């Protein structure tokens, strides 16, 4: 009896060992399969990460190169900086000019001024004293914390009285801010992020181009190309209307520093 029981236990143990062996082999096989799949997934992810990094690096380098080139172009334009002062004889009666002719804001109250032919009587505009009919010119205007403004150049012959057409066809080449967040060029809405603190204006009279820049970032805002100028151009500014004090900040003609020619 004892021998029979012993043999039975031995057979049972052998069966259990064989089952465990098969189970271990199955687990090991599944582990190998899982490990292989995991390795394949890791390699795929590493490749995707590598490609993504290259793409991001290229995008970063392209962005840095564009910013560098934009800054270099702006510095080249700033070599043609001119001193601009405001002409009080052209200023709308609501505009208040600083004694040095470098600042202007809309005071909200119409002053009693001579209605001379040069003066704007409906639009809150003012021109610069300086004019030019050749060469290249650059100037800057600070428009920080304003809700409306216009900056550009105009013909000296533009209309000053009544309704005026502020477009290239009417002798105006300008950009401006409307409603605190929309940059416009004539009737065109521009894709430019606000706020915009300082505007650079570059004119090449012979080439017939006017280029506007966001000075802080050297980003080009807008350009008018293939213009055929036929008379003198004057710097043009509008600080916008008072708007209950919301747009009371002055428009300031900035001092543009000339950079040394490379």
Automatic annotation (TrEMBL):
Coiled coil regions in record: 13-58
Keywords: Coiled coil
Record-linked InterPro entries: B30.2/SPRY (IPR001870), B30.2/SPRY_sf (IPR043136), Butyrophylin_SPRY (IPR003879), ConA-like_dom_sf (IPR013320), PRY (IPR006574), SPRY_dom (IPR003877), TRIM/RBCC (IPR050143)
Gene3D superfamilies xref list: 2.60.120.920
Domain of life, source organism: Eukaryota
Matching SUPFAM superfamilies: Concanavalin A-like lectins/glucanases
A Pfam family assignment: SPRY
PANTHER family (alphabetical): E3 UBIQUITIN-PROTEIN LIGASE TRIM
Protein name per the record: B30.2/SPRY domain-containing protein
Gene source species: Xiphophorus couchianus
